[in-house]
Amino acid sequence: MFDKASYETVLSNIDPERQELYSLCESQGVAITVMKPYGGGALLSAEASPFGAAMSVAQCLHYCLTRPGVATVLAGAVNKEELMEAVAYCDAGDAERDYAKLLSSCPAHPFTDKCMYCGHCAPCTAGIDIASVNKFADLCEAQHMVPETVREHYNVLSVKAGACVKCGQCETRCPFGVKIVEHMQKAVDIFGE
Ligand code: SF4
Ligand code: SF4
């Protein structure tokens, strides 16, 4: 996983096989627990991280918790200070948790046109929850089908992707260059609305 080539192919968003597993878990109602959210400490160090930039504890935890199907994270700690640093995530604000700015500008790995579900594109002119729409569409793409639970999650969204008026406002706010208008259309093709 820490080989540079591996990161370049699998971390453009999520390894396709892993994405398929996440989607299967979501469709079966199986919650995912993430281990090693700091990559054994490497993600906290600019020298050791494959991204060439250091993430904070809160950023690592938030990234894990915003992946599809993930319910909880097992954060390792070797002393009380590290444990309290992880616990502080619960009271951290949006700015402390935000991993988008760092990942969109990290020197060693370009994340472009891949939704990271960070929510920076909000607010949508039409009221669409763009991050959730993208997450549900990605789960379906990974399984080459529309799992019933994913459809149920999509159905409870108050505004569907079909409400997109193509104003392009969201795209000016996305740090990862996601072609959101195209992604909304893809979601309409998948879910029918
Ligand atoms: S479209 Fe861009 S800004 Fe919106 S959730 Fe995805 S990565 Fe974040
Ligand atoms: S382009 Fe579509 S998804 Fe983006 S802000 Fe406008 S209406 Fe919302």
Word description of this protein:
With about 190 residues, this protein is mostly helical. It has two domains: about 30-105, no CATH class; about 130-190, no CATH class. Helix content is about 45%, strand content about 5%. It has ten helices and two strands. The protein has a two-stranded parallel sheet. The structure holds iron/sulfur cluster (SF4) (2 copies). One iron/sulfur cluster binds near residues 124, 128, 168, 180 and 184. One iron/sulfur cluster (SF4) binds next to helix 9 and helix 10.
Short description:
With 193 residues, this protein is mainly alpha-helical. The chain contains ten helices and two strands. The termini are far apart.
Task: For the structure shown, list the relevant keywords.
193 residues, mainly alpha, 2 domains, 10 helices, globular, binds iron/sulfur cluster
Distance between the termini: 38 Å
Q: Which class do the helix and strand fractions yield?
A: mainly alpha
Quantity of strands, as a count: 2
**Which compounds are bound in this model?**
iron/sulfur cluster
Percentage of residues in helical conformation = 40-55%
Task: Please count the helical segments.
Answer: 10
The arrangement of helices and strands along the chain is: HHEHEHHHHHHH
Integer count of domains: 2
Which consecutive residue ranges, at least 5 long each, have pLDDT under 50? none
The main pleated sheet reads as: 2 strands, parallel
Strand content: under 5%
Gross morphology: globular
Mean pLDDT comes to 87
Order of the strands making up the biggest sheet: 1-2
Which value, in Å, is the CA radius of gyration? 17 Å
